[in-house]
């Protein structure tokens, strides 16, 4: 409700980000009036944002309340199947269509992200940026939209698999292999490298879920 300061962000984005950073976790109730107060946004845009998030299955009904959805074991498996196919396709297309500038940005990311190894939260954010850059490199807007939805749903997976001992280093090496294949214009290798990367992330998550550790990449 401040009349100064940075331009107001969309209520939908604000709620999504709060779920993404774990302010609201799966099972938490979202109350319109509390959200309006927290974000300094009026209730109408909050209500619209909540409806949109419910349509996207990011929120669920619990009686009369709306709660942050959680993914069961089967939903997780289904999500990873879709993610693997779409990310593989994005890498394949990026190997064909990414501009030299886009490839350079990707390469720079794979180098600078090593500096974040001791900060899993920053590394998780950098990881999202990296994948988003690959998606954009595909130059296919419908694919980018579908991947956005997949990545928004990934926000329901609580903390990051990149926090698991040793996973950060492996993930960055895998990113490097993906970029090298894209740089060579080798579609098959880019597809395979990205699939292998997602498969490793999923494996890490399954292992640590079994240990009662919530992990996601
Ligand atoms: Zn990654």
From TrEMBL:
Segments forming domain HTH gntR-type? 5-71
State the Pfam families in the record.
FCD (PF07729), GntR (PF00392)
Coiled-coil portions = none
Q: Where are the transmembrane segments?
A: none
Q: Per the record's keyword annotation, is Mitochondrion included, yes or no?
A: no
For this chain, one GO molecular function annotation is: DNA binding
Q: State the superkingdom.
A: Bacteria
Which UniProt keywords are present, listed alphabetically? DNA-binding, Transcription, Transcription regulation
Q: What is this protein called?
A: GntR family transcriptional regulator
Q: Which organism is it from?
A: Psychromarinibacter sediminicola
């Amino acid at each position: 409700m401040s009349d100064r300061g940075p331009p107001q962000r969309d209520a939908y984005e604000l709620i999504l980000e709060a779920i993404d950073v774990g302010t609201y976790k799966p099972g938490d109730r979202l109350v319109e009036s509390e959200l309006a107060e927290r974000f300094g946004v009026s209730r109408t845009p909050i209500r619209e944002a909540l409806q949109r998030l419910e349509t996207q299955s990011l929120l669920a009904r619990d009686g009369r309340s709306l709660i942050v959805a959680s993914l069961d074991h089967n939903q997780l498996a289904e999500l990873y199947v879709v993610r693997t196919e779409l990310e593989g396709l994005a890498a394949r297309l990026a190997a064909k269509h990414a501009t030299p500038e886009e490839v350079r940005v990707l390469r720079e990311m794979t180098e600078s992200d090593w500096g974040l190894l001791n900060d899993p939260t920053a590394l998780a954010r950098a990881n999202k940026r990296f994948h988003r850059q690959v998606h954009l490199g595909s130059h296919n807007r419908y694919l980018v939209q579908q991947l956005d939805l997949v990545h928004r749903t990934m926000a329901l997976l609580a903390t990051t698999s990149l926090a698991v001992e040793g996973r950060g280093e492996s993930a960055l090496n895998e990113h490097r292999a993906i970029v090298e294949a894209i740089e060579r214009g080798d579609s098959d290798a880019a597809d395979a490298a990205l699939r292998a990367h997602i498969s490793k992330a999923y494996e890490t998550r399954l292992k640590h879920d079994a240990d009662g550790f919530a992990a996601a990449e």
